[in-house]
Amino acid sequence: MLEMLYTALVSPFLKDGTLDRQGFVCLVRRLYRQGLRGFLVGGTTGEGPNLSIEEKIWMAKTLHQQFEDVSVMIGVGSNHTGHTLEEIMQLNEIEGIDAYLCVTPYYIKPSQNGLYAHFLACDAISCRPIILYNVPARTGVRLSVELIERLLENTERIVGLKQCGRDEQLIFKLKKTHPDFVIYSGDDHRLLQDLYLGADGAISVVSQLIGPEVLRLLNDFKTGQNLEPLDDYIKMIAKYCFMEASPAPTKYLLSRLGLIENVLRLPLVPVSEETAACLDQIKLE
Fold first, then answer.
1. Rounded to two decimals, what is the model's pTM?
2. Where is the binding site, in residues?
3. pLDDT value at residue 27
4. Which of 211, 204, 202 is closest to 257 using CA atoms?
5. Please, are residues 75 and 48 in contact by the beta-carbon 8 Å criterion?
6. Residue list for the binding site for pyruvate
7. What is the mean pLDDT of the chain?
């Protein structure tokens, strides 16, 4: 059962660059107490390309073992289809994973037919539901409505989409023709707009800072309450969280709360002093 909200978790590191296992548990325990039950590990916010498969597996297993009623999504994929398939096959052997978030191959800009063949191969090897990850700003390619519909006609495991970027027709058209296809808003600053277009939920970065507020927006959307003030607050936090390359600002804010160290793996680095001064203006609890 997929959750309406998945928090795109950062991957905490110690000063020596190793995975901060205690910090990871501390962060998730805080979010769990706030009512969050869906967690994504190894995504963009989790510095997925800089994680080993063993680190991803440890985080997924730890979530499942320590918090039995959570749903765990794990980020997979690269610009090498063979490597992507190897990763999925390794993760297929691990218990406690509910879905794969599979990013479009980046940098090499495959055609729509190339993307189709790539995801067809992923579907054939996976034993779990697959959420497509459409993020053109980072990968240089986009999934079209026609391609997604073609995949839905010819695959068994592809059940949803994380949509990033301004493509309003994509969400609207897909929900109109495939109402059971799950669409997650992947941009915190567009969450409310995407919900109006038909999105079912969110894969959110800022929810690890303001989880209750994001969860409340998603729940209150169903009842049609006045959502603009809450949406404005989420947009404001999102603006700060993307002042520099993500997840650097988010990690800085989490370190200020005393939850993790302000450490990233190269080529990502901590925020500049100027950005840190701006982030210090945010009041978080």
1. 0.96
2. 45, 203
3. 97
4. 211
5. yes
6. 45, 203
7. 96
